[in-house]
Specification:
By secondary structure, this protein is mainly β. The protein is built from no helices and eleven strands. The strands form two sheets. Strands 2, 4, 5, 6, 9, 10 and 11 form a seven-stranded mixed β-sheet that branches. Strand 5 and strand 6 form a beta hairpin. The protein is globular, with a radius of gyration of 14 Å. It starts with a strand and ends with a strand.
């Protein structure tokens, strides 16, 4: 299947916002998620959306600054990031689960079988 494609990253000043896009063109979409990886750190879960009904999941530590949504007709997932800070600087990856996993949660990397190449977000202060 075709891997998802991210876009929308770039350089932004602290306090600004960005909207990242993920084109998730798979045969079947169960869950689409965003992960991020800062330099020197492990990849971490950001948010996910269940395709069937649009139910969303968020990492608690983000404190409500992230919003994930989907456009069902376009098979596209968006991630809106508000009030960006230097701590948000990272490579952001879109991941797709093509089947419902009975083993891994939505926060587990191993749940996802299709990954994008990532889009860089750099926040300047």
């Amino acid at each position: 299947q075709v891997q998802p494609v991210e876009s929308g990253g770039g350089l932004v000043q602290a306090g600004g916002s960005l909207r990242l896009s993920c084109e998730a063109s798979a045969r079947f979409l169960d869950t689409v998620a965003w992960f991020r990886q800062a330099p020197g750190k492990e990849r971490e879960f950001v948010a996910a959306v269940r395709w069937r009904d649009g139910y969303t999941y968020y990492a608690d530590y983000l404190k409500g600054r992230f919003t994930i949504s989907r456009d069902n007709a376009k098979s596209t997932v968006y991630l809106r990031i508000y009030t960006l800070g230097p701590e948000d600087t990272a490579d952001y990856y879109c991941a797709v689960s093509t089947h419902n996993s009975g083993v891994y949660t939505v926060k587990a990397e191993n749940r996802y079988d299709l990954w994008g190449q990532g889009t860089q977000v750099t926040v300047s202060s």
